[in-house]
Predict the 3D structure of the following.
Amino acid sequence: MKIAVLPGDGIGPEIVVQAVRVLKALGLNLDLEEAPVGGAAYDVAGHPLPPATLELAKKADAILFGAVGDWKYDTLARELRPEQAILGLRKHLELFANFRPAICYPELTAASSLKPEIIGGLDILIVRELNGDIYFGQPRGIRTSELALFKGAREGFDTMHYSEPEVERIGRVAFEAARKRGKKVCSVDKANVLETSQLWREVMIRVAKDYPDVELSHMYVDNAAMQLVKAPKAFDVVVTGNLFGDILSDEAAMLTGSIGMLPSASLDKNNKGLYEPSHGSAPDIAGKGIANPLATILSAAMMLRYSLGMPAEAERIEKAVQKVLAQGLRTADIFTEGTQKVSTVQMGDAVVAALA
Ligand code: IPM
Ligand code: MG
């Protein structure tokens, strides 16, 4: 099995190296090959997703990804910005199904900004469509306005669209996932305003007919943002488009108080996938040795389960992570009074030791 390892920017390299250690400690026959991506790739190859990196990602069985982005690239043209690397990988590899679990670990309930009774035991899954929507819609650009009131002024514009098959395929992914857990799907849209959402909702209702054992509900995105803070445990699987999913998944992740703990998977129709932590590149703490490597380590576990067909090994990693939490070890982001603060490397050490 070939794994493309793409550490990227900011804390990406520090956390990916810990996940790689954990994978190696499992003693599996994995061929790990590293390539630059994001700003790091721009620095060495003049492009955030150089052809050699894309080639490696295409031929690999799975991709372990760190994070991309740093303020120092903010002045680059859009097509050269680090973010284009992850968007390009998602698009070129047709990774349309993004799984973002938001789980509140019992040991970390106190790290949430919400009351323990609201958040304790939270286990929801956001299924975000990743290949369509306003992220990729054409036309887009900056032009001269034709609006009577603002004629001649510059205006930015983007296009939101979803075709029926695109909605159907992400809908099926969400229903299949719900079948294996709480058997509820909440489809989030803005059907009171947007045609794109009106069609989205129609398709979801149609797809639901093939899953009579799963309960489908609908929610407008503004209300969903509110319900996520009010009563997050009422959700099971949330399925939504690319833009709404971007926003709601950050909200859901932070609810748990442990965004540094949450992995994610982005899959194509054959379950080939890219695995990355739900958090970003955090350039403000890069190089300080304080980043939490657990989200990336858990992403490696997701990779073993979904793309490599090794559920037992995935579970070994997950158990090891639970063990270090139970031991009271915490990186700075999840530290609370009475626990023991450790560095990125010490956390990696502890997980490797707990595998034994
Ligand atoms: C995410 C990120 C990306 C997105 C950025 C880095 C382009 O925020 O994975 O959620 O908007 O999808
Ligand atoms: Mg995001």
Summary: The chain has two domains: 1-96+268-356, 97-133+160-261. The mean pLDDT is 96.
